[in-house]
Amino acid sequence: QVQLAESGGGSVQAGDSLRLSCAVSGGAFSFYNMGWFRQAPGKEREFVLGISRSGSKVDYADSAKGRFTISRDNTKNTVILQLNSLKPEDTAMYSCAADFQPHVDRVTRLSTAYDYWGQGTQVTVSS
After folding, report:
1. Element (H, E) at 58
2. Rg of the Cα trace of the chain?
3. pLDDT of the residue at 34
């Protein structure tokens, strides 16, 4: 059973940084393309960033460009989302997701393409 566990969320001030981690267990981590999504109250879930199995492909939502970065460590089965220069509009529940693709190195923004999801970690940014 594949499990994803996020950590690192919290309450911060505008301009601060947070480092979110997603630990994956129960599967071959190198077979998963990974994504981070977020959902604010009353809004639809949206794609934030994604990284391919190999780490060679990365995709950023416009809201993330210049402020957020994503990385993965295939030896530790972990994906990191670095959030910098946070704004109040970044307040949301952040969830990581795994796209099982043993032979495809890709990043997709479609939430329906992801096979496994974590419970999420809350990020709250105050002005």
Report:
1. strand 58-60
2. 14
3. 98
